[in-house]
Amino acid sequence: MSPNPLSRRQVLKTFGLLGGTSLMLGAMDAWELKGAPAGPRPQLRGTQPSTRVLVLGGGISGLIAGHELRKLNYDVRVLEARDWAGGLTWTVQRGDRHTEMDTGERQVCDFDEGHYINAGAWRIPHSDEGIIGYCRELGVELQVFINASDANFFYEENPDLGPLSGQRVRLAEVKADMWGSTTELLAKAMNQGDIDVPLSGDDLERLTQFLVRSGYLDSEDYVYSPPAARRSEGRHDLGALLQSGFWARARSLNQETGGPAPLFQPIGGMQQIAFAFERELGDRLEFNSEVRTVRQGEDDVRVVVRDTRTGEEREEVADYVVCCLPMSILQKIDVNFSPEMAQAVSETGHAAVAKMGLQMARRFWEEDEGIFGGHLWSRSLQLGEFSYPCYDYFAQKGVLLGYYGSSRQAGLDQLPVRGRIEHVLTQASKVHPQMREEFEHAYAVWWEKIEYSEGAYGRGPSDDLLTRLGRADGRLYIGCAGASEDPAWLEGAVHAAWRSVEALHERVMRG
Ligand SMILES: Cc1cc2nc3c(=O)[nH]c(=O)nc-3n(C[C@H](O)[C@H](O)[C@H](O)COP(=O)(O)OP(=O)(O)OC[C@H]3O[C@@H](n4cnc5c(N)ncnc54)[C@H](O)[C@@H]3O)c2cc1C
Question: Which pTM value belongs to this model?
Answer without folding.
Answer: 0.93
